[in-house]
Amino acid sequence: MTPPHITHHASRITHHVSRITYHVLRFTLLFLLTACNVLTPAPTPTLSPLPAPTATPTAAATAVPPGTPTPEPTPEPEALTIWTTERDAALTLLLELAAEFDAGSAAQVEVLPKSVAGLRADLIAVELAQESPPDLIWGDEEDLAGLLADKQLQPLDPVEGAAAFLPATITSATAGGQIWGQPLAAQDFLLLFYNRTLLFEPPRTTDQLIIQSRAIQAPGRAGIVAAWNEALWLLPWINGFGDTPTTPDGSWPALNTPAMVAALNLVRELRAAAPADQQDYAQANARFSAGEAALAIDGAWALPGYRNPESVVDFAVAPLPRVPATNRPAAPALGGTYLMFHRSLDGEELNQGQDFARFLVQPEVQLRIAANLQRLPALRSSLTAPAISGDAVLAAAAAQAEEAIGLPPTPGLRCALSGINVQLPAFLSEQIDPQEAAAAMQQFAEMCMVE
């Protein structure tokens, strides 16, 4: 199962219909009628002097006062249109925020939901039909990467206060040295879930994680479960050993590294406490939900399922442990929620879009996004707010958020993840060792880049 930051979301379209007014000219023909007098012959009259004609008084013309011009009606400002792939509670919150912005601004915001699969296709269709595109797009890092590849976005120019936001949310929106979306939240983070029936407190280091998971393993009970065969679950360990899966700018895969070899060795140690037949996400999720595992590495998106009455596990969450060799946390990758600007947006509408972006990163709005959607604020100063520290899940995520790695919207990252995913099965089945796996991952990723 691919986590929701790779598959989720919904879309909308607006059409600006132009009006054409036709003016019809009317022509009237005037006809002059001529009247003739019929004269009858008569005896010649006695000529008498004609009386002087009486002059007909002429009325003085009254001046017509100049007309008062009819004022042109002030046109209503056109609404900024936002397409979004959000659904359910997230869509409801976006609608509320748009209405609040409307109430305090001359600009109006119209929200149109779109499907995750249809967002890019609908934008291309609008372009082909020469219709008006959306002004803004609200989506995640996957939406951003796709729209950037389609050349639909414009960068934030200038980049205002990038240091105020979580580094991972900036990384996940940066390509070619420019930021292509305003960070609004951090999402899709992995956490350490532990079964409180089997463990009193979670392990704090990877060494403790190995020891405790093996000690608690028993017939019918796993020490730890995870989606071992997915790249997202390998990234925290690479980060814990001090590296990322790409070069610093995200432009090229960097998998054949000492950090990758160390991360794969750690996975091998952890896998010893996992069921031999469990590799994929669905199996891991099912076992932990049934109370058959002491520990699980899972995403915040799994919370509704674990809290479902059908789930029997009594669980708590913690940050992923630290790596003693580097004293770094094994912080996971963070996805993001972004407000993106369509490439055609300019002038006053661009200013209004920037006003809306500033509205969304106000501390109080950031905390509402976090509380309603179980996402972290993108604004670093909001991570210490009571609303975050008082929520067990968000507090655990916030504890590792500063060190989390981002997912840049670049071919380099996409090819790196593909290389990992293709070679993990051979490594997990012990067909190749960590050194061979790292080399094979890099080779596949470089072929991907060339193609």
Distance separating the two termini = 26 Å
What structural category arises from helix and sheet content?
alpha+beta
Write down the Rg: 36 Å
Main pleated sheet:
7 strands, mixed
* Principal-axes shape call: globular
Give start-end ranges of low-pLDDT stretches: 4-65
Strand content: 5-15%
How many extended strands?
15
What's the SSE pattern?
A: EHEHEHEHEEEEHEHHHEHEEEEHHEHHHH
Mean pLDDT: 86
Helix content: 25-40%
Q: What is the tally of helical segments?
A: 15
Summarize it:
With 451 residues, the chain is α+β, with helices and mostly antiparallel strands.
Describe the structure in your own words.
The chain has 451 residues and is of the alpha+beta class. It has 15 helices and 15 strands. Strands 1, 2, 3, 4, 7, 14 and 15 form a 7-stranded mixed sheet that branches. The chain has a 4-stranded mixed sheet with strand order 9-10-8-11. Strand 5 and strand 6 (178-179) form a beta hairpin. The two termini are 26 Å apart. Residues 4-65 have low confidence and may be disordered.
Topology of this structure?
Elements: E1 80-84, H1 88-103, E2 109-113, H2 119-128, E3 136-140, H3 141-149, E4 153-154, H4 167-171, E5 174-175, E6 178-179, E7 182-187, E8 190-195, H5 206-216, E9 222-225, H6 231-240, H7 258-271, H8 281-289, E10 293-299, H9 303-306, E11 315-318, E12 322-323, E13 328-329, E14 335-342, H10 347-360, H11 363-373, E15 376-377, H12 386-389, H13 392-399, H14 411-428, H15 434-450
Parallel strand pairs: 1-2, 1-3, 9-10
Antiparallel strand pairs: 3-14, 4-14, 5-6, 7-14, 7-15, 8-10, 8-11, 12-13
Helix pairs in contact: 1-11, 6-7, 7-15, 14-15
